[in-house]
Amino acid sequence: MQFLWYNKCKEKQQNASKSLHLEWMRMYRYSNGQIRLSDFKQPMGMNLKEDNRWVKRALLIPWNDIEKRYASLFTNRKGNVAKPLRLALGACIIQADYGYSDEETALQIQENAYLQYFCGYEAYDDSKPPFDSSLMVYFRKRLTAEVLGEINEMILVQSKVTPALESVETPAEKKTDEQSETDDDDKPDPPTNSGTMIVDATCAPSQIRFPQDTALLNEARENTEAIIDALHISGNQKPRTYRKRAHKDYLKLVRCRKPSAKKIRKCIGQQLRYLRRNLNTIEAMKSAHSGMLSEKQQARLDTIHKVYEQQKIMYDHHTHSVPDRIVSLSQPWLRPIVRGKAKTTVEFGAKLDISVCDGWTRLEYFSFDAYNEAQNLVEMIERYRARTGRYPERVLADKIYRNRENLSYCALHNIRLSGPALGRPRKNEERDKKRDYQDQADRVEVERQFSLAKRKCGLGMIVTRLEETTCHCLAMSVLLLNLRKLQRLLHAFFRWWFCVGKMPFVQ
Protein backbone atom coordinates (compact mmCIF):
# COMPACT_ATOMS: atom_id res chain seq x y z
CA MET A 1 0.00 0.00 0.00
CA GLN A 2 2.83 2.39 0.82
CA PHE A 3 4.61 1.54 -2.42
CA LEU A 4 1.45 2.27 -4.43
CA TRP A 5 1.06 5.62 -2.72
CA TYR A 6 4.73 6.43 -3.39
CA ASN A 7 4.42 5.53 -7.07
CA LYS A 8 1.30 7.67 -7.48
CA CYS A 9 3.02 10.66 -5.85
CA LYS A 10 6.07 10.17 -8.05
CA GLU A 11 3.90 10.08 -11.18
CA LYS A 12 2.13 13.28 -10.11
CA GLN A 13 5.48 15.03 -9.59
CA GLN A 14 6.76 13.92 -12.98
CA ASN A 15 3.60 15.03 -14.72
CA ALA A 16 3.73 18.38 -12.92
CA SER A 17 7.37 18.93 -13.89
CA LYS A 18 6.60 18.03 -17.51
CA SER A 19 3.67 20.43 -17.64
CA LEU A 20 5.80 23.18 -16.03
CA HIS A 21 8.58 22.61 -18.57
CA LEU A 22 6.07 22.69 -21.44
CA GLU A 23 4.54 25.88 -20.04
CA TRP A 24 8.03 27.46 -19.76
CA MET A 25 8.78 26.45 -23.35
CA ARG A 26 5.54 28.07 -24.44
CA MET A 27 6.47 31.31 -22.67
CA TYR A 28 9.98 31.43 -24.21
CA ARG A 29 10.94 30.55 -27.75
CA TYR A 30 14.58 29.61 -28.35
CA SER A 31 16.31 30.96 -31.41
CA ASN A 32 17.66 28.60 -34.05
CA GLY A 33 21.24 29.67 -33.43
CA GLN A 34 23.58 31.37 -35.82
CA ILE A 35 22.48 30.66 -39.40
CA ARG A 36 24.55 31.13 -42.50
CA LEU A 37 24.04 34.23 -44.56
CA SER A 38 23.02 32.07 -47.51
CA ASP A 39 20.17 30.61 -45.42
CA PHE A 40 18.86 34.07 -44.55
CA LYS A 41 15.72 34.57 -46.64
CA GLN A 42 16.07 37.83 -48.53
CA PRO A 43 13.45 39.59 -50.64
CA MET A 44 13.81 39.77 -54.38
CA GLY A 45 16.57 42.15 -55.43
CA MET A 46 18.34 42.22 -52.04
CA ASN A 47 21.85 40.80 -51.81
CA LEU A 48 23.48 40.91 -48.38
CA LYS A 49 27.29 40.95 -48.31
CA GLU A 50 29.34 38.67 -46.11
CA ASP A 51 31.92 41.36 -45.39
CA ASN A 52 29.37 43.56 -43.62
CA ARG A 53 30.41 44.49 -40.08
CA TRP A 54 27.19 43.21 -38.51
CA VAL A 55 27.53 39.87 -40.27
CA LYS A 56 31.10 39.55 -38.98
CA ARG A 57 30.12 40.72 -35.51
CA ALA A 58 27.41 38.06 -35.30
CA LEU A 59 30.11 35.40 -35.70
CA LEU A 60 32.10 36.74 -32.74
CA ILE A 61 29.38 36.20 -30.13
CA PRO A 62 28.57 32.68 -28.77
CA TRP A 63 24.81 33.12 -29.02
CA ASN A 64 23.91 29.52 -28.17
CA ASP A 65 25.99 29.41 -25.00
CA ILE A 66 24.69 32.79 -23.85
CA GLU A 67 21.08 31.84 -24.52
CA LYS A 68 21.35 28.52 -22.70
CA ARG A 69 22.76 30.27 -19.65
CA TYR A 70 20.63 33.39 -19.46
CA ALA A 71 17.36 32.52 -21.23
CA SER A 72 15.64 32.16 -17.86
CA LEU A 73 16.00 35.91 -17.33
CA PHE A 74 13.57 36.58 -20.18
CA THR A 75 10.77 34.19 -19.25
CA ASN A 76 7.43 35.42 -18.05
CA ARG A 77 4.61 33.18 -16.88
CA LYS A 78 2.02 35.75 -17.92
CA GLY A 79 1.27 37.41 -21.20
CA ASN A 80 2.72 36.73 -24.62
CA VAL A 81 5.76 34.64 -25.52
CA ALA A 82 8.93 36.29 -24.24
CA LYS A 83 11.39 37.83 -26.66
CA PRO A 84 14.55 35.78 -27.36
CA LEU A 85 17.69 36.69 -25.48
CA ARG A 86 19.56 37.22 -28.74
CA LEU A 87 17.06 39.87 -29.82
CA ALA A 88 17.35 41.66 -26.46
CA LEU A 89 21.15 41.54 -26.33
CA GLY A 90 21.46 42.43 -30.02
CA ALA A 91 19.17 45.43 -29.61
CA CYS A 92 21.21 46.69 -26.63
CA ILE A 93 24.46 46.32 -28.60
CA ILE A 94 22.99 48.20 -31.57
CA GLN A 95 21.75 50.99 -29.32
CA ALA A 96 25.11 51.35 -27.57
CA ASP A 97 26.99 51.36 -30.89
CA TYR A 98 24.85 53.96 -32.65
CA GLY A 99 23.53 55.93 -29.66
CA TYR A 100 19.92 55.50 -30.73
CA SER A 101 16.90 56.13 -28.57
CA ASP A 102 14.60 53.25 -27.67
CA GLU A 103 12.11 54.14 -30.40
CA GLU A 104 14.80 54.62 -33.03
CA THR A 105 16.44 51.29 -32.14
CA ALA A 106 13.22 49.37 -32.80
CA LEU A 107 12.65 51.21 -36.10
CA GLN A 108 16.22 50.65 -37.31
CA ILE A 109 15.97 46.91 -36.66
CA GLN A 110 12.68 46.86 -38.56
CA GLU A 111 14.16 48.63 -41.60
CA ASN A 112 17.69 47.15 -41.75
CA ALA A 113 18.23 43.57 -42.97
CA TYR A 114 21.77 43.38 -41.56
CA LEU A 115 20.53 44.30 -38.09
CA GLN A 116 17.80 41.66 -38.34
CA TYR A 117 20.40 39.05 -39.26
CA PHE A 118 22.50 40.15 -36.27
CA CYS A 119 19.47 39.81 -33.96
CA GLY A 120 18.79 36.22 -35.09
CA TYR A 121 16.06 36.67 -37.71
CA GLU A 122 15.64 33.83 -40.21
CA ALA A 123 14.22 36.10 -42.91
CA TYR A 124 13.85 39.79 -43.59
CA ASP A 125 10.60 41.15 -42.14
CA ASP A 126 9.66 44.84 -42.22
CA SER A 127 5.94 44.42 -41.63
CA LYS A 128 6.09 45.51 -37.99
CA PRO A 129 8.67 46.54 -35.36
CA PRO A 130 10.40 43.63 -33.62
CA PHE A 131 9.18 44.81 -30.21
CA ASP A 132 7.60 47.74 -28.47
CA SER A 133 10.14 50.41 -27.64
CA SER A 134 9.20 50.30 -23.95
CA LEU A 135 10.69 46.79 -23.74
CA MET A 136 14.18 48.27 -24.04
CA VAL A 137 13.96 49.29 -20.39
CA TYR A 138 13.03 45.69 -19.54
CA PHE A 139 16.02 44.41 -21.55
CA ARG A 140 18.45 46.72 -19.75
CA LYS A 141 17.10 45.70 -16.35
CA ARG A 142 17.50 42.00 -17.11
CA LEU A 143 20.98 42.33 -18.63
CA THR A 144 22.68 43.58 -15.49
CA ALA A 145 26.32 44.59 -15.18
CA GLU A 146 27.19 41.18 -13.70
CA VAL A 147 25.51 39.35 -16.60
CA LEU A 148 27.22 41.53 -19.21
CA GLY A 149 30.57 40.98 -17.49
CA GLU A 150 30.12 37.21 -17.78
CA ILE A 151 29.04 37.54 -21.42
CA ASN A 152 32.16 39.61 -22.06
CA GLU A 153 34.31 36.79 -20.68
CA MET A 154 32.43 34.23 -22.78
CA ILE A 155 33.14 36.26 -25.92
CA LEU A 156 36.86 36.48 -25.07
CA VAL A 157 37.01 32.76 -24.29
CA GLN A 158 35.42 31.86 -27.62
CA SER A 159 37.88 34.10 -29.43
CA LYS A 160 40.78 32.32 -27.63
CA VAL A 161 41.81 35.62 -26.09
CA THR A 162 41.76 34.27 -22.54
CA PRO A 163 41.70 30.68 -21.27
CA ALA A 164 38.45 29.15 -20.11
CA LEU A 165 37.71 29.76 -16.46
CA GLU A 166 37.01 26.07 -15.87
CA SER A 167 40.50 25.15 -17.05
CA VAL A 168 42.22 27.38 -14.47
CA GLU A 169 42.91 25.32 -11.37
CA THR A 170 43.39 26.73 -7.94
CA PRO A 171 46.38 25.74 -5.81
CA ALA A 172 44.10 23.55 -3.66
CA GLU A 173 42.84 21.67 -6.72
CA LYS A 174 46.33 21.07 -8.03
CA LYS A 175 47.38 19.24 -4.89
CA THR A 176 46.22 15.67 -5.55
CA ASP A 177 46.83 12.52 -3.56
CA GLU A 178 49.65 11.43 -5.82
CA GLN A 179 51.43 14.75 -5.46
CA SER A 180 51.12 14.71 -1.71
CA GLU A 181 52.90 11.35 -1.58
CA THR A 182 55.87 12.59 -3.60
CA ASP A 183 58.87 14.28 -2.03
CA ASP A 184 59.34 18.01 -1.91
CA ASP A 185 62.22 17.78 -4.37
CA ASP A 186 59.96 16.32 -7.05
CA LYS A 187 57.45 19.15 -6.89
CA PRO A 188 57.52 21.49 -9.90
CA ASP A 189 58.44 25.11 -9.43
CA PRO A 190 55.54 27.56 -9.09
CA PRO A 191 54.62 29.37 -12.31
CA THR A 192 56.43 32.63 -12.88
CA ASN A 193 54.67 35.93 -13.33
CA SER A 194 53.74 36.94 -16.85
CA GLY A 195 51.73 39.60 -18.59
CA THR A 196 50.95 43.25 -18.00
CA MET A 197 47.87 44.72 -16.38
CA ILE A 198 47.03 48.39 -16.86
CA VAL A 199 44.50 49.93 -14.45
CA ASP A 200 42.92 53.34 -14.13
CA ALA A 201 39.67 55.02 -13.10
CA THR A 202 37.36 57.51 -14.76
CA CYS A 203 33.90 59.01 -14.36
CA ALA A 204 30.92 58.42 -16.64
CA PRO A 205 28.75 61.55 -16.28
CA SER A 206 24.97 61.29 -16.31
CA GLN A 207 22.71 63.65 -18.21
CA ILE A 208 21.30 65.86 -15.47
CA ARG A 209 20.87 69.57 -15.00
CA PHE A 210 23.80 71.20 -13.26
CA PRO A 211 22.74 71.15 -9.61
CA GLN A 212 22.12 74.49 -7.90
CA ASP A 213 20.68 74.82 -4.42
CA THR A 214 17.99 77.26 -5.46
CA ALA A 215 16.90 75.23 -8.50
CA LEU A 216 16.87 71.99 -6.48
CA LEU A 217 14.73 73.53 -3.73
CA ASN A 218 12.36 75.06 -6.26
CA GLU A 219 11.90 71.69 -7.97
CA ALA A 220 11.30 70.02 -4.60
CA ARG A 221 8.70 72.66 -3.71
CA GLU A 222 6.87 72.12 -7.02
CA ASN A 223 6.84 68.37 -6.42
CA THR A 224 5.32 68.82 -2.96
CA GLU A 225 2.63 71.05 -4.46
CA ALA A 226 1.78 68.28 -6.93
CA ILE A 227 1.57 65.78 -4.05
CA ILE A 228 -0.78 68.12 -2.15
CA ASP A 229 -3.01 68.32 -5.23
CA ALA A 230 -3.05 64.51 -5.42
CA LEU A 231 -4.00 64.15 -1.74
CA HIS A 232 -6.68 66.83 -1.88
CA ILE A 233 -10.24 65.51 -1.67
CA SER A 234 -12.77 67.29 -3.82
CA GLY A 235 -15.29 69.22 -1.79
CA ASN A 236 -12.86 70.12 0.97
CA GLN A 237 -10.93 73.34 1.21
CA LYS A 238 -7.44 73.06 -0.26
CA PRO A 239 -4.70 74.10 2.16
CA ARG A 240 -2.80 77.27 1.39
CA THR A 241 0.57 76.68 -0.25
CA TYR A 242 1.65 80.19 -1.34
CA ARG A 243 2.82 78.68 -4.64
CA LYS A 244 2.44 81.90 -6.63
CA ARG A 245 4.44 83.93 -4.11
CA ALA A 246 7.13 81.22 -3.91
CA HIS A 247 7.43 81.07 -7.69
CA LYS A 248 7.69 84.87 -7.84
CA ASP A 249 10.45 84.89 -5.24
CA TYR A 250 12.38 82.27 -7.22
CA LEU A 251 12.05 84.25 -10.47
CA LYS A 252 13.50 87.34 -8.78
CA LEU A 253 16.78 85.49 -8.40
CA VAL A 254 16.72 83.71 -11.76
CA ARG A 255 16.21 86.93 -13.68
CA CYS A 256 19.24 88.54 -12.09
CA ARG A 257 22.23 88.42 -14.40
CA LYS A 258 24.83 88.11 -11.65
CA PRO A 259 23.10 87.61 -8.29
CA SER A 260 25.15 88.29 -5.22
CA ALA A 261 25.79 85.76 -2.48
CA LYS A 262 23.43 87.67 -0.21
CA LYS A 263 20.55 87.35 -2.71
CA ILE A 264 21.23 83.64 -3.24
CA ARG A 265 21.21 82.99 0.49
CA LYS A 266 17.98 84.94 0.89
CA CYS A 267 16.31 82.93 -1.87
CA ILE A 268 17.49 79.63 -0.32
CA GLY A 269 16.01 80.63 3.04
CA GLN A 270 12.67 81.52 1.42
CA GLN A 271 12.45 78.25 -0.49
CA LEU A 272 13.33 76.29 2.64
CA ARG A 273 10.45 77.88 4.54
CA TYR A 274 8.00 77.26 1.69
CA LEU A 275 9.16 73.66 1.43
CA ARG A 276 8.92 73.07 5.17
CA ARG A 277 5.34 74.38 5.15
CA ASN A 278 4.39 72.05 2.28
CA LEU A 279 5.95 69.03 3.99
CA ASN A 280 3.99 69.73 7.20
CA THR A 281 0.81 70.09 5.13
CA ILE A 282 1.39 66.72 3.46
CA GLU A 283 1.93 64.96 6.78
CA ALA A 284 -1.27 66.52 8.18
CA MET A 285 -3.29 65.51 5.11
CA LYS A 286 -1.98 61.93 5.23
CA SER A 287 -2.93 61.53 8.90
CA ALA A 288 -6.28 63.33 8.72
CA HIS A 289 -7.69 61.83 5.53
CA SER A 290 -5.71 58.57 5.51
CA GLY A 291 -4.42 59.59 2.13
CA MET A 292 -2.36 57.06 0.28
CA LEU A 293 0.41 57.90 -2.11
CA SER A 294 1.67 55.74 -4.92
CA GLU A 295 5.02 54.02 -4.66
CA LYS A 296 6.62 56.55 -6.99
CA GLN A 297 5.16 59.51 -5.10
CA GLN A 298 6.28 58.10 -1.73
CA ALA A 299 9.82 57.56 -3.02
CA ARG A 300 9.93 61.10 -4.34
CA LEU A 301 8.62 62.42 -1.00
CA ASP A 302 11.35 60.56 0.91
CA THR A 303 13.95 62.08 -1.40
CA ILE A 304 12.53 65.57 -0.81
CA HIS A 305 12.79 65.06 2.95
CA LYS A 306 16.48 64.22 2.59
CA VAL A 307 17.06 67.21 0.32
CA TYR A 308 15.41 69.51 2.84
CA GLU A 309 17.54 68.17 5.70
CA GLN A 310 20.77 68.54 3.72
CA GLN A 311 19.95 72.03 2.50
CA LYS A 312 18.90 73.11 6.00
CA ILE A 313 22.22 71.90 7.44
CA MET A 314 24.22 73.77 4.79
CA TYR A 315 22.09 76.91 5.26
CA ASP A 316 22.47 76.93 9.04
CA HIS A 317 26.21 76.20 9.06
CA HIS A 318 27.13 78.45 6.10
CA THR A 319 28.73 75.61 4.15
CA HIS A 320 28.37 74.11 0.68
CA SER A 321 29.18 70.46 1.36
CA VAL A 322 27.38 67.67 3.16
CA PRO A 323 27.88 63.87 3.19
CA ASP A 324 25.94 61.91 0.54
CA ARG A 325 24.66 65.08 -1.04
CA ILE A 326 21.67 64.63 -3.38
CA VAL A 327 22.04 66.55 -6.64
CA SER A 328 18.98 65.29 -8.56
CA LEU A 329 15.44 64.42 -7.45
CA SER A 330 14.89 62.02 -10.34
CA GLN A 331 18.23 60.27 -9.76
CA PRO A 332 18.93 60.51 -6.02
CA TRP A 333 21.73 57.91 -6.18
CA LEU A 334 24.06 60.28 -8.06
CA ARG A 335 26.79 62.03 -6.09
CA PRO A 336 29.24 64.81 -6.93
CA ILE A 337 32.65 63.34 -7.74
CA VAL A 338 35.60 65.71 -7.56
CA ARG A 339 38.08 64.68 -10.26
CA GLY A 340 40.23 67.80 -10.44
CA LYS A 341 40.28 67.87 -14.23
CA ALA A 342 40.97 71.03 -16.16
CA LYS A 343 37.70 70.92 -18.07
CA THR A 344 35.35 69.97 -15.24
CA THR A 345 36.48 69.82 -11.64
CA VAL A 346 33.30 68.09 -10.46
CA GLU A 347 31.35 65.40 -12.36
CA PHE A 348 28.00 63.82 -11.57
CA GLY A 349 27.78 60.17 -12.46
CA ALA A 350 29.37 56.81 -11.79
CA LYS A 351 33.04 56.26 -11.05
CA LEU A 352 34.51 53.08 -12.52
CA ASP A 353 37.76 51.12 -12.58
CA ILE A 354 38.84 49.23 -15.69
CA SER A 355 41.79 46.99 -16.45
CA VAL A 356 43.45 46.43 -19.81
CA CYS A 357 45.30 43.15 -20.32
CA ASP A 358 46.84 42.50 -23.74
CA GLY A 359 44.56 45.14 -25.22
CA TRP A 360 41.31 43.65 -23.81
CA THR A 361 39.22 45.72 -21.44
CA ARG A 362 37.34 44.57 -18.34
CA LEU A 363 35.11 46.47 -15.93
CA GLU A 364 36.57 45.80 -12.51
CA TYR A 365 34.55 48.03 -10.17
CA PHE A 366 32.08 50.91 -10.27
CA SER A 367 30.19 52.99 -7.75
CA PHE A 368 28.08 56.13 -7.65
CA ASP A 369 29.95 57.31 -4.56
CA ALA A 370 33.40 58.84 -4.65
CA TYR A 371 36.01 56.29 -3.55
CA ASN A 372 39.75 55.80 -3.52
CA GLU A 373 40.59 53.55 -6.46
CA ALA A 374 43.72 52.25 -4.74
CA GLN A 375 41.60 50.07 -2.45
CA ASN A 376 40.58 47.81 -5.36
CA LEU A 377 44.03 47.02 -6.77
CA VAL A 378 44.56 43.81 -4.79
CA GLU A 379 41.18 42.44 -5.82
CA MET A 380 41.87 43.24 -9.47
CA ILE A 381 45.20 41.43 -9.36
CA GLU A 382 43.58 38.38 -7.76
CA ARG A 383 40.97 38.27 -10.53
CA TYR A 384 43.80 38.42 -13.07
CA ARG A 385 45.39 35.40 -11.37
CA ALA A 386 42.03 33.55 -11.41
CA ARG A 387 41.78 34.05 -15.18
CA THR A 388 45.35 33.25 -16.18
CA GLY A 389 46.65 31.05 -13.36
CA ARG A 390 49.54 33.39 -12.50
CA TYR A 391 50.21 36.90 -11.28
CA PRO A 392 51.09 39.69 -13.69
CA GLU A 393 54.71 40.60 -14.22
CA ARG A 394 54.02 44.31 -13.98
CA VAL A 395 51.09 46.58 -13.12
CA LEU A 396 50.95 49.98 -14.77
CA ALA A 397 49.02 52.58 -12.78
CA ASP A 398 49.26 56.20 -11.73
CA LYS A 399 50.61 57.38 -8.40
CA ILE A 400 47.31 57.17 -6.51
CA TYR A 401 47.60 53.35 -6.57
CA ARG A 402 51.08 53.49 -5.03
CA ASN A 403 50.30 53.29 -1.33
CA ARG A 404 52.17 51.18 1.21
CA GLU A 405 49.64 48.35 1.25
CA ASN A 406 49.68 47.89 -2.52
CA LEU A 407 53.46 48.17 -2.70
CA SER A 408 53.95 45.52 -0.03
CA TYR A 409 51.43 43.22 -1.70
CA CYS A 410 53.13 43.57 -5.09
CA ALA A 411 56.56 43.00 -3.57
CA LEU A 412 55.30 39.84 -1.84
CA HIS A 413 54.09 38.36 -5.14
CA ASN A 414 57.03 39.56 -7.23
CA ILE A 415 54.94 42.13 -9.13
CA ARG A 416 56.53 45.35 -10.33
CA LEU A 417 54.25 48.34 -9.74
CA SER A 418 55.24 51.16 -12.06
CA GLY A 419 56.46 54.47 -10.71
CA PRO A 420 59.11 55.72 -8.29
CA ALA A 421 59.36 54.67 -4.66
CA LEU A 422 57.55 56.55 -1.91
CA GLY A 423 59.22 59.38 -0.12
CA ARG A 424 62.31 61.33 -1.04
CA PRO A 425 64.64 59.86 -3.63
CA ARG A 426 67.64 58.16 -2.10
CA LYS A 427 71.12 59.56 -2.42
CA ASN A 428 72.88 58.35 -5.56
CA GLU A 429 69.72 56.53 -6.62
CA GLU A 430 69.70 55.62 -10.28
CA ARG A 431 66.44 55.13 -12.08
CA ASP A 432 66.03 53.12 -15.24
CA LYS A 433 64.79 55.97 -17.41
CA LYS A 434 64.27 53.75 -20.41
CA ARG A 435 62.05 51.39 -18.43
CA ASP A 436 60.09 54.27 -16.88
CA TYR A 437 59.55 55.79 -20.30
CA GLN A 438 58.31 52.46 -21.66
CA ASP A 439 55.90 52.08 -18.73
CA GLN A 440 54.44 55.51 -19.37
CA ALA A 441 54.11 54.76 -23.08
CA ASP A 442 52.35 51.46 -22.40
CA ARG A 443 50.02 53.01 -19.83
CA VAL A 444 48.58 55.25 -22.55
CA GLU A 445 46.57 52.22 -23.71
CA VAL A 446 44.06 52.61 -20.87
CA GLU A 447 43.58 56.29 -21.71
CA ARG A 448 42.97 55.28 -25.32
CA GLN A 449 40.24 52.88 -24.17
CA PHE A 450 38.62 55.62 -22.09
CA SER A 451 38.63 57.96 -25.07
CA LEU A 452 37.13 55.38 -27.41
CA ALA A 453 34.48 54.37 -24.87
CA LYS A 454 33.39 57.97 -24.31
CA ARG A 455 33.38 58.89 -28.00
CA LYS A 456 31.93 55.75 -29.59
CA CYS A 457 30.47 53.47 -26.92
CA GLY A 458 28.13 55.74 -24.94
CA LEU A 459 30.31 56.26 -21.86
CA GLY A 460 30.66 59.99 -22.45
CA MET A 461 27.08 60.75 -21.38
CA ILE A 462 24.71 58.29 -19.72
CA VAL A 463 21.14 59.16 -20.69
CA THR A 464 19.28 56.41 -18.82
CA ARG A 465 17.19 57.41 -15.79
CA LEU A 466 17.25 54.30 -13.59
CA GLU A 467 20.06 53.01 -11.43
CA GLU A 468 19.91 49.48 -12.90
CA THR A 469 19.90 50.72 -16.48
CA THR A 470 22.82 53.06 -15.77
CA CYS A 471 24.87 50.11 -14.52
CA HIS A 472 23.88 48.26 -17.70
CA CYS A 473 25.24 51.08 -19.87
CA LEU A 474 28.60 51.02 -18.07
CA ALA A 475 29.09 47.29 -18.66
CA MET A 476 27.73 47.45 -22.22
CA SER A 477 30.27 50.12 -23.21
CA VAL A 478 33.13 47.84 -22.06
CA LEU A 479 31.66 44.86 -23.93
CA LEU A 480 31.35 46.97 -27.07
CA LEU A 481 35.00 47.99 -26.80
CA ASN A 482 36.09 44.35 -27.00
CA LEU A 483 33.69 43.60 -29.84
CA ARG A 484 35.12 46.49 -31.84
CA LYS A 485 38.67 45.27 -31.26
CA LEU A 486 37.79 41.69 -32.21
CA GLN A 487 36.12 42.95 -35.36
CA ARG A 488 39.18 45.01 -36.31
CA LEU A 489 41.46 42.02 -35.79
CA LEU A 490 39.17 39.81 -37.85
CA HIS A 491 39.09 42.36 -40.64
CA ALA A 492 42.88 42.69 -40.58
CA PHE A 493 43.30 38.91 -40.68
CA PHE A 494 41.03 38.48 -43.69
CA ARG A 495 42.74 41.35 -45.47
CA TRP A 496 46.13 39.76 -44.83
CA TRP A 497 44.84 36.37 -45.98
CA PHE A 498 43.46 37.90 -49.15
CA CYS A 499 46.73 39.64 -49.91
CA VAL A 500 48.76 36.49 -49.25
CA GLY A 501 46.46 34.46 -51.47
CA LYS A 502 46.87 36.95 -54.33
CA MET A 503 50.65 37.23 -54.01
CA PRO A 504 52.61 35.09 -56.47
CA PHE A 505 55.10 32.60 -55.15
CA VAL A 506 58.62 34.02 -55.17
CA GLN A 507 61.52 31.66 -54.76
How do you describe this structure in short?
By secondary structure, the chain is an alpha/beta fold.
Verbal overview:
By secondary structure, the protein is α/β, with parallel strands linked by helices. It folds into 3 domains: 18-143, no CATH class; 193-207 and 335-422 and 430-499, Ribonuclease H-like superfamily/Ribonuclease H (Nucleotidyltransferase, domain 5), CATH 3.30.420.10; 213-317, no CATH class. It has 18 helices and 6 strands. Strands 1, 2, 3, 4, 5 and 6 form a 6-stranded mixed β-sheet that branches. A hairpin with a 7-residue loop joins strand 2 and strand 3 (346-357). Helix 8 packs parallel to helix 18 (467-502), helix 11 (213-231) runs antiparallel to helix 12 and helix 11 (213-231) runs parallel beside helix 13. The chain is flat and about 85 Å long. The protein starts with a helix and ends in a 5-residue tail after the last helix. Mean pLDDT is 84; it is low at 1-10, 16-25, 165-185 and 503-507.
Helices and strands in order:
Elements: H1 2-27, H2 53-59, H3 63-70, H4 85-98, H5 102-111, H6 113-118, H7 135-142, H8 145-158, H9 171-174, H10 177-181, E1 196-205, H11 213-231, H12 243-254, H13 261-289, H14 295-317, E2 335-338, E3 346-357, E4 360-367, H15 377-388, E5 394-396, H16 404-412, E6 416-417, H17 433-456, H18 467-502
Parallel strand pairs: 1-5, 5-6
Antiparallel strand pairs: 1-3, 2-3, 3-4
Helix-strand string: HHHHHHHHHHEHHHHEEEHEHEHH
Name the poorly predicted regions: 1-10, 16-25, 165-185, 503-507
Rg, please? 29 Å
Which overall shape is indicated by the principal axes computed on the Cα atoms?
flat
CATH class descriptor of the largest domain: Alpha Beta
The count of helical stretches stands at 18
Strand content: 5-15%
| Record field, number of beta strands | 6
Give the terminus-to-terminus CA distance: 88 Å
So, CATH architecture of the largest domain?
A: 2-Layer Sandwich
What is the average per-residue confidence, as pLDDT, rounded to a whole number?
84
CATH superfamily of the largest domain: Ribonuclease H-like superfamily/Ribonuclease H
The oligomerization state is single chain
Strand-pairing-aware structural class: alpha/beta
**How many structural units, i.e. domains?**
3
